[in-house]
Amino acid sequence: MVTFEEQTRCIVEALFSDLGDDESGCRSLETDSGASAQPAGEPLTGFDPVVIASRLQRIGDQCNMDFEKVSSEALAEVLKGKMEKFEAAVDSLSRSWSDQNPGMVYERAFLSVSVKLLMHVAKKVPAMVHPKHLIQAINGNSKVRNYIEAHGGWENLDN
């Protein structure tokens, strides 16, 4: 059985897989036919990192923040490429967004903000962005992990 951490790594790497290939980001991740990108010979588990990465991208699209106009010390550092502040910036922005929007739970806001912010920074300072930033942010947040697991795991996120 694959661990949550390993699943997160696979999903985030799939999200990044074609980041540099296409201006629209990861839009080509999920096929129109819904065909699985799972390798032949692998047991069908419902876990398809490419499909889940596409869902995660859609969750990121729900974040409508203009990061350039938000006042946050940690965010300002991230926008300059100081990625060691990434988790703190995402946490702060997620709390603020979920507090201002009663229908938005913190965990979902965290997923949305983390994806959107990482993609934003990737366009500004691509040399500073690595999948590990998003992997560590998700794996390091027990609330987000519990939220995903309570919804049946990654394979049931937004399914």
Characterise this structure.
- This protein is mainly α and 159 residues long.
- It is built from 7 helices and no strands.
- Helix 4 (86-100) crosses helix 5 (106-124) and helix 5 crosses helix 7 (142-150).
- The model is unreliable at 21-28 and 31-44 (pLDDT under 50).
Unreliable parts: 21-28, 31-44
User: How large is the share of residues in beta strands?
Assistant: under 5%
The global form is: globular
Would you list the SSEs in sequence order as H and E?
Answer: HHHHHHH
Number of strands: 0
Overall average pLDDT: 85
**Helical content class:** 40-55%
State the major sheet.
Answer: none
Class of secondary structure makeup: mainly alpha
Radius of gyration: 15 Å
Query: N- to C-terminal separation?
Result: 21 Å
Alpha plus pi helix count: 7
Can you tag this structure with a few keywords?
mainly alpha
Topology, element by element:
Blueprint: H1 4-16, H2 49-61, H3 73-79, H4 86-100, H5 106-124, H6 131-139, H7 142-150
Describe this structure in a few short sentences.
With 159 residues, the chain is mostly helical.
